[in-house]
Amino acid sequence: MLNIQEEFDEHERKGTWRMEFQKINIESHQYDYSTTEAKKEVNKPYNRYRDVSPYNHTRIVLCNGTSDYINASLVTEKRANRRYILTQGPLPTTIGHFWQMVWEQKSKAVIMLNNIIEKGTRKCAEYYPVSPGSLQTIECEHTDLQVSILREDEHSFYTVRTLELKNRKTNESNEVLHLHYTKWPDFGVPKSPEAFLKFLHHVRQTGSLAEDVGPPVIHCSAGIGRSGTFCLVDTCLVLIEKAGHLDGVSVEEILLDMRRCRMGLIQTHDQLRFSYLAILAGARAILDGRGLVSLAREEGEEEAPPPLPRKLKRPHSPEEQDGSDVKTARQDDTNDVKSHDHDGNPSTSEMELRRRRREEKKRSLQEKVSEIRRAREPVGIPDKTSPPLPNCKLDQHPDP
């Protein structure tokens, strides 16, 4: 069995990255896992893409509301003691679902790997507040949750925000880190393995990936390409550090295991190749005793990460309400769109990519029109054309 370095060298020499990617696709397509919950008519409006659905057996289940559905999956790797929640970029109609999931799962961090707008196309709703000085707050309709921003720290290619997620009914609140990688193109790869590893090191230093806290919520646009790359690299580096060598850690096997939890993880052969590059760069630093922190310093002076968000707190009085500028997360009508091709066929992938871009431009226009309409409406009046979001005290129930 070849080790990771030998596999990488062989694919480079033979130019077989596309073939290896297609081999993984063919094998994972044989998985016979049900996605019936995602396909229900009532849940279809909550899916950003028609062909990216959570499996029934790993989907995150919301509770005690009008809907228990969100397009999100729990991805686990027992050997590395890692748990991740991978999800799509929130739609305007799922902002409440998203933050309920974060609250319910006791997640300490949200890891965002896309930008709101990419190449003129909206990839994600603006689900988090910006501009700490403005005291802006997002109040999720039909839930008791509101989100405000406490501080923001900008780095060269990522931004770290500290958010407060508050239950207005109980006055309980949690701080949640929002770690936003801003330089990762859709279907593409980061500028360099070292830049990505600096970000991964920062995420690890916050403690948000530890097994004694809730799983981090990780998303890009569909929650499979960039998100899958992040999880694959992190997991492989954990296993390499445990083993103390490259032997016995199979990138292909780990990726196939992860695809049993969420379909289509890693979307292109370029993302697969980049995963190997990042794993090897990180492994060299780990095995020679320098650690990922050394790669972070090579990219610039190391900055101390923010502390792990504090645990649940209760204000002294229920009157602890500020007069902040409230931005309501309104519900917009959305349509399903065609998205990702998983068969690895170059011509089919190009056709699907062009189709997806057309559909995304259409969706982006629809969302912009909806934003204009919302701006003309009184704040706080719910959109009665959309079903209400769930309102629950959060406690995940395993999916049968």
From TrEMBL:
One of its GO terms (cellular component) is endoplasmic reticulum. The active site is at C220 (phosphocysteine intermediate). Residues 17-282 form the Tyrosine-protein phosphatase domain. Substrate binds at D186, C220, S221, A222, G223, I224, G225, R226, Q267. InterPro entries: NR_tyrosine_phosphatase, Prot-tyrosine_phosphatase-like, PTP_cat, Ptpn1/Ptpn2, Tyr_Pase_AS, Tyr_Pase_cat, Tyr_Pase_dom. It comes from the Eukaryota. Residues 316-344, 361-377 have a biased composition (Basic and acidic residues). The keyword Endoplasmic reticulum applies. GO terms for biological process: negative regulation of ERK1 and ERK2 cascade; negative regulation of receptor signaling pathway via JAK-STAT. Residues 297-400 are annotated as: Disordered. Gene3D superfamilies: Protein tyrosine phosphatase superfamily. Belongs to the protein-tyrosine phosphatase family. Non-receptor class 1 subfamily. This is protein-tyrosine-phosphatase. The lineage of its organism: Eukaryota, Metazoa, Echinodermata, Eleutherozoa, Asterozoa.
